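Weekly puzzle thread! Below is a chain. First person to post its structure in token form gets bragging rights.
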Amino acid sequence: MASWEELDNFYKAFSEFEEEVDIYCQQLIDILYQIITHLSSKDREYIRKVVSTLQVNKRDFKRQRDEVALDPTENNREELHRLEIHLVTIINDLRDHEVIRKFREKLQEQNRPSNNRIGISPTADTAITGVSTISLPTNKPQQDITPTRSRDEIIDTAFRIVDKILPPDATPMERLQEVERLVSRTIARPVEEKSVPPRANENRANYMH
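Winning reply:
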């Protein structure tokens, strides 16, 4: 799962600003795509708008950069600089936004050592609700009752599937909505085993092509 540490590392690199701003922009979009499934519906809507805005402004910046390469007039260079400042402002404003602050607080709560004192096992749901669940002793291996990694694998798989089934001109909003639908449908199903029967593999291959 993407965490505040990833965002923190991103902003540390961004403060140096050694590459074109559109490269940082895409890195941030990739992190937000991972974070969004762990947010409330209200916060999710805000991140969707941020992603959409970043996509549009990144495209405008790259187009203007190409224009400057062909026609390096003062007006074209000024417009490129304006678009660059606008992208930098969007990226920096997000760092201090309430949505990111709440996400950071939930992760800090989840990672506190006291969570494990009386058999409390942080799960993927903790990142959403901020509340840990108490796990009773069982004979199952520990990884079976802490499904965070499995959820991450489901999300990663959903993005790969969506990239295959949606047309190239699909909007970021359409892509995110399809990922959320796949993730919700998959997590709602009980998982008995980690191994997948051969027939399921065959069906998955047919679905993804």
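Puzzle host: Confirmed. Bonus trivia for everyone else. Residues 115-149, 189-209 have pLDDT under 50 and may be disordered.
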